[in-house]
Amino acid sequence: MYKLIRSIFFLFDAEKVHYIAMSLLGLTLKLPAAKFFYRKIFIVENEKLEKKLFGLTFKNPVGLAAGFDKDATFFNNLACCGFGFIEVGTLTPLAQPGNEKPRLYRLKKDKAIINRMGFNNNGVEIAVEQLKMKKHKDLIIGGNIGKNKSTPIQGAVDDYVKSFDALFDHVDYFAVNVSSPNTANLRDLQEKEPLTYLLQTLQDLNNAREKRKPILLKIAPDLTDSQLDDIIDIVNNTKIDGVIATNTTVERPNLQTSEEALQQIGAGGLSGKPLTKRSTEVIRYLATKSKKAFPIIGVGGIHSEADALEKLEAGADLLQLYTGFIYEGPGLVKRINKAVLSKL
Fold this sequence. Notes:
Blueprint: H1 2-9, H2 14-28, H3 34-42, E1 51-53, E2 56-58, E3 62-64, H4 75-78, E4 85-91, E5 104-107, E6 112-115, H5 124-131, E7 140-145, H6 156-167, E8 173-177, H7 192-207, E9 215-219, H8 225-238, E10 242-245, H9 259-265, E11 269-272, H10 276-289, E12 296-299, H11 305-314, E13 318-321, H12 323-328, H13 331-343
Parallel strand pairs: 3-4, 3-13, 4-7, 7-8, 8-9, 9-10, 10-12, 12-13
Antiparallel strand pairs: 1-2, 5-6, 6-11
Helix pairs in contact: 6-7, 7-8, 8-10, 10-11, 11-13
């Protein structure tokens, strides 16, 4: 059934149809017995799936990555697709339109997506108002934060602090995004000195609160082993709570999509099946080299139960979907959870 729905959706512009699909989800959930239907079809309820990390209890290990619900508009409805947690954002202090359209492209032959969205969002305060309407008490919400495009890199820390303060009472954990390739100079913040300063600043603010919130760092798959060693040192030194591995890649590894088509698309971050291997390599490197000193959320190219189990075996504690959710549908969440159960 989902393949038929996907074939229809894929006839339309990728960005426009995203909002159409989310509107249709909201409409169907208003029908009598719809929530019961979604629960039966997509949700696996079993206490054995629960995962306790960062002082939080995740009802299952499969989450939705940032970028899908940028303004915290759809999370209540998306919870009906079986996710154990949903990460909203990336959010910036001020609203911004993002990069020029078109900026979202499907690579159907590769089961991949290229995006250069550029942190388009309505600003953190609008998201806060949406988060106040949370309906599912057991749904863990993460807040993914970044800097405004207009903010010079020297002032980036202030942007992260503003979003951190605004979201603090409304999310369960934070994801610090310094790894998107679609905001100029943002990845410069992954260098050891500026990244340490940024994370320590947020950690100091966090520790000053009556009850702190977990802080995780989202990293790029394009980091070298030496840079990953720096990440391990930074996490250990700042004592943040974990790493999300990985964001999109600027590389174009062995794609079936033609070079001509790729040139027409242009710059952007690649996600989906071509990222499966590299994201798993990063997870395994971090887990092995750090001797599992901190939790890891694995994301990147999860399109099947096997992909998910491989990431867990490599050292991931939780998982996130994005492109796999688009190509495979909400049934993938259930299949992964059932596969995890079978391994327990």
